[in-house]
Amino acid sequence: MQISQHLKSLAINKVLDKFQRLSIVRKIFLSFLILFIILILAVNLLILNYQKNSLKSQINENITLLLENLSKDAIDHIVFFDPLAIDEKITLIMNSPGIDYIMISDKNGRIIGHSNKKELGKFIKIDEETFKKWQYIDSEEIRHLNIPIMAADTFIGVLRAGISENKINQYVSDAIKNLKNYIFILNFLALGVTILMSFMLSKTLIKPLQRLKEKMSNIQADKLEVCQNPYIVLCKDILLCTKTDCPAYGKERCWLITEAKENCKLCHNIDCQDCYVYKVSCGDEIGYLIETFNEMIIKLKHSLEELDKATKEKLKLEKSSAMAEMAMTVAHEIKNPLNAIKASTAYIKSNFEGEVLKEFLSIIDRETERLNELITGFLSYARPVPLKYEKADLNRAIADVIKLIETEVKEECKILNIEFDNSIPEFYFDNHQLKQAILNLLVNAMDATKNGDSITVKTLKKDSKVLITIADTGMGIPEELLNKIFEPFFTTKTTGSGLGLACVERIIKNHDGSITVHSKKDAGTEFIIELPLKF
């Protein structure tokens, strides 16, 4: 017994194990097929049993009714002794299915009508049981009936009949044979349709999962791609939103845009996962799975971009720090000899005469001063001064810087355009260092332009930020150099330390701002500074 149960359990586990190893398409297909077969077998059995029982019940009721009618019709034929009429009636009823025999006797027990002609004239025993209605079933499954024939209250005869259950069953089996054939044909057609529908349904259900599987495989190949969702909808189409200034307006997957999520939470007090747009876009559970995967991919891409950006920034800072440390060391070592050279030059100029001597001393003095400025620049970059915040007018600060170059711009016949946004309020920034950054950018613009070119300085308040744009129509920067211009000591000029733009970037970043550059060779350059409004 235990061995049998063990083998049974082993067989079931083997079948389940094989089923688990099947693909989802085959699992769905087989599940639908097995479910259909079980369902159709149950329905068929139900229909056939119902039809069989119904037909048997109908036959029995019909036989009972015929025998009852025969017992009534036989009264006149017994009274007037008309055995031919009785025989005709019996022959007619014997054509009904399931009747084994019919016998009619008179009040003395003489058989005057019988389905078996050999029994005519014989006698049956008349006793008390003869005057009662009764029935019994013998060992051969024949139900015997006794129906007394009464004329008013007078007993004139008896009708006895045998009803064979086997004959009825055989008749019912023959009768429902055609029904079985019809059901078989219908089942065959339904099975074909079910197989086709199961195959198509399994393919339809598995299609999005296959797309998801493909995209997940791409992750292993460092391809972070969003899985396609054909049911995705736009909030402007579903909610008929007209808020065109919303960051998510007209864009897919508004629930991944932080500002849009905050707006929805603020305006409609609803989370994205509970939003109708999200639910419609996801559709079923597989859709939710795909959108969760897409959200993960987008966040992962964003994180990798941030990590890459942070890594580059770190390398840049390490490089700048190393170069600044080296520059500071070199500058410190050079500054003292330069001061000695300058002091000696001044002493010689004061105590000795001669035009040639003065001319050479002036050259030494001028070059020494230039070297001093370079070293001062190195030291300023290597040892940055902390920001000194003060509340000031940005437009006025920029105007002060413009005054320094205004005369030179006019002398070189260049065009200076100024567009200040007067709605910018006073806010906190380091007035001195920001002026230095603006001056560096304007000096670069002056160097990059020639007669007839224009330089534009523009300010603009945008939400909680201020944009400062410095653009020129000069020679522009080659595209391959754009990512290097903020590196320390990088310059394309024959003079200068190459620290100007590096200092500008550091000053802006210290203000928690950002600077971007757009340039095209021979078309000009545009620097855009973005500063937060700090009150």
Automatic annotation (TrEMBL):
Gene Ontology cellular component list: plasma membrane
Keywords: ATP-binding, Cell membrane, Coiled coil, Kinase, Membrane, Nucleotide-binding, Phosphoprotein, Transferase, Transmembrane, Transmembrane helix, Two-component regulatory system
Protein name: histidine kinase
Catalytic function, reaction form: ATP + protein L-histidine = ADP + protein N-phospho-L-histidine
Keyword Transmembrane helix: yes
Entry's localization field: Cell membrane
InterPro entries: HATPase_C_sf, HATPase_dom, His_kinase_dom, HisK_dim/P_dom, HisK_dim/P_sf, sCache_3, Sensor-like_sf, Sig_transdc_His_kin-like_C
Enzyme class at the top of the EC tree: transferase
Domain Histidine kinase: 329-535
Coiled-coil portions: 290-320
UniProt EC number: 2.7.13.3
An MF annotation (GO) of this entry: phosphorelay sensor kinase activity
Membrane topology: Multi-pass membrane protein
Domain of life: Bacteria
Signal sequence interval, chain numbering: none
